[in-house]
Specification:
This protein is α+β, with helices and mostly antiparallel strands and about 525 residues long. The protein is about 45% helix and about 20% strand.
């Protein structure tokens, strides 16, 4: 193998050592950047299409510049500048094999002003890339930590913070309202994201993130740091008010008292850092109702009604506690909702009583009209928890007869009247459905109730194709959110589309014949063989 022409340049190693110390990166990475710069200068002199490589000796700084040519089997070659056929290569170097390289040493290049400037740019760019990669590796696992930095400059209200080894961005909307920082000010913030972007790793800081408050308490309260007390949830209105739910794993330690500290010393340290933000510390509870009541403190709660499926909770408070429960501009109830992750509706006792009375009157009137009974019997049914005519039919005869004032004959008569009312209602709804033009195929495709078929007809869903064209959310919107879940809606729509796929298989009726509904829909026909 030919010996490369080498020039000893010990000053290169000295420069590499200095840059490595200043940027706190590896010496080899700086030398690799120098090699790339020399290679670029060599290609500018000998041809950009050629494979020019430079190697710096790590011991004495010798620079070897050479041209590499790959030995390939095919002839002619794809790239004459970097490849040579094995037949010709063996004339220069007997025994060389495909895949090896012929290395031709090149004389050293004399860096002119342009070449030196280009080399400098390559080195700087490469060193910057290595530095950014090191910053990303250092901070990517530090998301969720609090860091201290110095404001370096301000760009359109956003702060560039110098963390010592890296630079981070604190956006204007991530700062607490009414707080202002100037260049040179110290700032403490929470790392909520680290992303590697084309311009380098981006560290994003926040002083409004709920995690910032939690980490501040972890620094002030040793029990939280040690894991004895756990912060279960945090909700913040930055700069104004916050709520934090805590629980103790040691029954002998009061989690709220530990976070407040002696004469409020611990919580006050956090409040000062957050520019006077008031903090409500509440005990966390695994019982949702208890947790909601605690979260609405300092307001008193007299009644809680939970809807687990919708994750909504109805809270009843005394009349004089309404403003306190809602808070200024709805702040208290909003933070409580964020903390518990339940939608909270607040009613006063008077409003709740009035609503109960209105519901009682409405349901009593329904039973009076549908079952042709007096107010006393209708009131008894409502008091026992019956909300619809279907409930009367669904209940056992013995249970219905056990209601005070009822007997078996009364129970049987009520059931008979309920069945007659529902049958009459279904007949009327079916007639209305037919008047709207809703086909039987639609009725049978989804097993819809007569009332649902009327709702479909009023929305223009009258044929099987109309039903097949719907999306699941559209069908649920027409029939009501409690009518079915998304999977059921999708199954109904796919059944309605079945006749489309049968047409693709060549089973569609011939032209001129009326389309038939799929067998799954069980299309009804009347006695004359016509479509019903």
């Amino acid at each position: 193998m030919a010996v490369d022409v080498a020039i000893a340049r010990p000053e290169l190693l000295q420069v590499a050592d200095a840059v490595a110390r200043e940027k706190m990166i590896e010496r080899d990475e700086v030398l690799e950047a120098m090699e790339q710069a020399i290679q670029k200068a060599g290609r500018a002199k000998y041809g950009h299409e050629k494979d020019i490589r430079a190697i710096i000796d790590r011991r004495n700084g010798e620079v070897r510049l050479s041209r590499w040519t790959e030995v390939v089997e095919q002839e002619p070659v794809e790239n004459e500048a970097t490849q040579i056929p094995v037949r010709i290569a063996q004339k220069f170097k007997p025994g060389i094999q495909v895949g090896e390289f012929i290395v031709d040493p090149l004389p050293p290049i004399d860096f002119g002003r342009i070449a030196a400037q280009t080399a400098k740019q390559v080195i700087v760019q490469r060193v910057r890339e290595v530095e950014r990669k090191k910053q990303y590796d250092e901070y990517k696992d530090r998301v969720g930590e609090i860091v201290n930095g110095i404001v370096k400059r301000t760009e359109y209200g956003n702060l560039m913070v110098d963390l010592g080894r890296a630079e981070a961005l604190l956006r204007r909307d991530e700062t607490i309202p009414r707080e202002a920082f100037r260049n040179g000010d110290r700032v403490r913030a929470y790392i909520y994201d680290v992303r590697e972007e084309p311009r380098g790793p981006q560290l994003f800081l926040s002083r409004t993130h709920p995690g910032f408050l939690a980490k501040l308490f972890a620094q002030e309260v040793p029990e939280i740091y040690d894991g004895i007390i756990e912060i279960k949830a945090v909700a913040r209105d930055p700069g104004s008010r916050a709520k934090m739910a805590v629980i103790s794993r040691d029954s002998s330690i009061d989690p709220v008292g530990a976070c407040v500290g002696m004469r409020g010393s611990r919580v006050q340290a956090v409040v000062q850092e957050l520019q006077g933000e008031k903090i409500d510390i509440i005990p966390w509870s695994g019982d949702n109702a208890t947790f909601v009541v605690n979260a609405l403190a300092p307001a008193e709660v007299t009644k809680v009604v939970l809807d687990d499926e919708a994750r909504r909770v109805e809270v009843v408070v005394p009349d004089d506690q309404l403003s306190l429960a809602i808070g200024r501009r709805g702040q208290n109830v909003r933070l409580a909702s964020q903390l518990t992750r339940w939608d909270i509706d607040i009613l006063t006792e008077a409003e709740e009583s009035e609503r109960r009375q209105e519901e009682f009157r409405k349901r009593t009137g329904l039973f009076v009209e549908a079952l042709d009974v007096d107010d006393v019997i209708a009131g008894l049914l409502v008091t026992e928890g019956f909300t619809s005519i279907e409930d009367v039919i669904a209940v056992d005869d013995d249970e219905l007869a056990s209601i005070e004032g009822f007997d078996e004959s009364v129970a049987a008569e009520l059931k008979r009247r309920a069945e007659a009312f529902l049958e009459q209602r279904d007949v009327e709804l079916d007639e209305k459905r037919r008047a709207l033009g809703v086909e039987d195929a639609v009725a049978e495709a989804g097993g819809f109730t007569p009332a649902q078929l009327v709702s479909l007809g009023e929305k223009g869903v009258k044929q099987l194709d109309d039903l097949a064209d719907l999306a699941s959310d559209e069908l649920i919107e027409i029939l009501g959110p409690d009518s079915m879940d998304e999977d059921t809606a999708n199954a109904i729509i796919m059944a309605a589309r079945q006749h489309w796929f049968e047409g693709e298989d060549g089973e569609a009726p011939e032209s001129g014949e009326q389309d038939e509904a799929p067998e799954a829909a069980g299309e009804a026909v009347d006695g004359d063989g016509q479509k019903a």
